[in-house]
Amino acid sequence: MATPHASKTKEGMQFETLDLERSGAVARVTLDRPDAANALNGQMMSDLLDVSIALDEDPTVRAVVLTGRGPMFCAGGDLAEFSRAGDTLPALLKKLTTIFHGAVARFARMDAPLITAINGTAAGAGFSLAVAGEYAMAAESARFTMAYTNAGLTPDGSSTFFISRLAGLRRAQELMITNRLLSAREAVDWCLVNEVVPDDRLQDEAMALAERLASGPTRAFGSVKRLLLQSAGDALESQMEAEARAIADAARSADGREGIAAFLAKRKPSFTGN
């Protein structure tokens, strides 16, 4: 695993795994563990929760961009950290998903629109994050895969809520059962991404859109976000609780332990159905 970054101070806040920048009314949050493919460890989940609350509480923030440092957007959960937990992994996952899902919920319910600028591969929980905003902009090189069941685990981070609503149940089933790899263009066709831009234009295009939205009716945007969640049954948090319990149960299984071990050993898993 990469050596943790020294704490960075931006806008009066300290983070080990994120970079927070402000440009007028726009905040940009960058996942900043590039040597670990921006994998979500406990510290990054905690940092995401802290930054989501801070942005939700700051009325001067009127649009947010979420992106990643380096060649990958986010490789998903940090399976090395999961492996070190041993038999306590199910309990750890219940704790981590509580934190991570809290961040997703704050981003989903804050007034400011969230633009995800997907700079490379988004896998597992990274895929969940990529589609959890109001506008998803992908670089040409971006790729998308659920990947959870490859490790004997189940989706979290709101993906079973958003992907089934964006792409439809049949395609959600395909993504989560077969772990199909989607190109950026395919992700647009599947209604998971709004647009694709050249890699070298991604950050500029995402910031330009954020600046345009930041000049709009922020409170009205927030109401639209919450009304759309309500129209889907207002079940985001309850769905994420179901996700948290499912991934903890999967981690408790023999296949869950085998999937994580095989991933870390870079070998094909031998699942037994137990």
Number of helices: 11
CATH topology: 2-enoyl-CoA Hydratase, Chain A, domain 1
**Portion of residues within helices:** 40-55%
Largest sheet: 6 strands, mixed
Structural class label: alpha/beta
What global shape is seen? globular
CATH superfamily: 2-enoyl-CoA Hydratase, Chain A, domain 1
Structural commentary:
The N terminus is likely disordered. The protein has a single domain, classed as 2-enoyl-CoA Hydratase, Chain A, domain 1 (Alpha-Beta Complex), CATH 3.90.226.10. The chain is globular and about 55 Å long. β1 and β2 form a beta hairpin. It is of the alpha/beta class and 274 residues long. The longest helix is centred in the middle third of the chain and has 21 residues. The strands form 3 sheets. The protein has a 6-stranded mixed sheet, sandwiched between helices. Strands 6-8-10-11 form a 4-stranded mixed sheet. The protein has a two-stranded antiparallel ribbon with strand order 1-2. The chain is built from 11 helices and 12 strands. The chain starts with 7 loop residues before the first strand and ends in a 9-residue tail after the last helix. α1 packs parallel to α3 and α3 runs antiparallel to α10.
